[in-house]
Amino acid sequence: MSASTAGRTPVARIAIALAASTSAITLTACGAVDSLGGGDSSASPTKGDDITVGLLLPDKDTARFEDFDYPVIKKKVASLTHGKGKVAYANAGANPATQSGQFQQMVDQKVDIILVDALDAKAIAPDVQKAKDAGIPVIAYDRLAQGPIDAYISHDNELVGEVQGRAIVKALGSKAATDKIVMMNGDPADPNTAKFKEGALSELRDKVQIAKAYDTEKWSPAVAKANMKKAIAAVGLNNIAAVYSANDGMAGAVVDALKDAGATTIPPVTGQDANLDAVQRIVSGQQYMTVYKPFLDEAAHAAEMAVYKLQGRDIQFDALTQNTVDSPTEKKIPAMLVPVVALTRNNIKDTVIADGVYSVKDICTAKYQEACAAVGLK
User: Fold this and answer.
1) SS3 call for 52
2) Which residues, listed in sequence order, are joined to residue 88 by a DSSP beta bridge?
3) How many CA atoms lie within 13 A of 62 on its CB side?
4) Model confidence pLDDT, tens digit, residues 186-243
5) Cβ atoms within 10 A of the Cβ of 71, count?
6) How far apart are alpha carbons 213 and 227 in whole angstroms?
7) pLDDT confidence of 61, banded at 50, 70, 90?
8) Pairing state between β 323-325 and 138-141
9) pLDDT tens track for 76-122
10) What pLDDT sits at residue 46?
11) What 8-state DSSP symbol labels residue 286?
12) What gap in Å lies between CA 245 and CA 256, rounded to an integer?
């Protein structure tokens, strides 16, 4: 990515403006649905601008969902519908039962289309079927839900794991074959977890020694920290050369556990999502890298897919969904896979700053000013 905004795509320019205004947007409380109504149950591709897009996001531990995904989708829907389109939003707070109830509420309220980031891809399938029966299209967002979904937008999730695995091997260098690492995988109910793990293992297998590996229910940082404490006790603090952490929330918990155990130097720790605190840890040397998934583009394209689907704009919809994916229940689902980038201390300017996700001021608070200066962030 270029550090310059010259020649930037319309989506990227929109993303910059959205990032600047995010702090002014009031977010919905966990479990609450706002702006419901304004639609009917028909899936007819002849709707105009007066539409309601249902948005179901999974948790608040992953900062991007409330700070970026929801505001971007909300504003993009409005811009595509001359200010008439609305977003009905609910966050499940990491509770699959809550998400199922929110899904049913949106079906009952007859939203026009649903974007769902499923906490449990298999468990959500009956809800997707209910929407289908009610004539409401469903687009799987970020995670591939089961059931009769109409489209899917995410990233190449196996590539995410590959990028993380390669980073560890690179960080360990010539000692990789004899070094011991800990794997902190994501929630087994999340279909992306298996892809992340598969990609990571394709890079780590036969190149490092995996001393301990854990799955992390609901991607909980608290669970990750508890498991990291177990790993330290079993392997020994000084024997852990690196930690594969599948996302940034868990990476922060891993770093805390290492510090609590007395680590004065933190071994390479991976992450994913480019959370602000993770970027700050990278600047200060507390985290080695994160996978930056341009979620502003993902969110904007998801909004486009939803609006185009409802308005019968097949050419535009097909242009966005040039890939196909298979789920355990459906084959050849139209899909868009957004590229990913390994974010390290060396390319912060060219990624999250260039894309307007964060400013230097956001990252370089008083606590991190010295570290920022050392990597050229001023």
Assistant:
1) strand
2) 54
3) 26
4) 999 898 999 999 999 999 999 999 999 999 999 999 999 999 999 999 999 999 999 9
5) 23
6) 9
7) confident
8) unpaired
9) 999 999 999 999 999 999 999 999 999 999 999 999 999 999 999 99
10) 65
11) S
12) 13
What is the CB neighbour count within 10 angstroms for residue 370? 11
> What region does 39 belong to: left with phi over 0, alpha with psi -120 to 50, or beta?
beta
In the predicted structure, residue 293 carries a pLDDT above the cut 80:
yes
For the sheet with 323-325, list strands across it: 86-91, 52-57, 113-116, 138-141, 151-155, 333-338, 323-325
Distance (Å, rounded) from C-alpha 156 to C-alpha 196? Answer: 9
The type of residue at 61 is D
Phi, psi (5° rounding) for residue 14? -60, -40
376 vs 20: CA distance, rounded Å: 22
DSSP 218: G
Average pLDDT value for the chain:
89
Q: How many CA atoms lie within 13 A of 172 on its CB side?
A: 26
The CA distance from 153 to 321, in Å, is 8
Tokens standing for 11? Answer: 């989506």
Q: Spell out where 61-208 has E strands.
A: 86-91, 113-116, 138-141, 151-155, 180-184
CB-based contacts of 7, cutoff 8 Å, min separation 6:
none
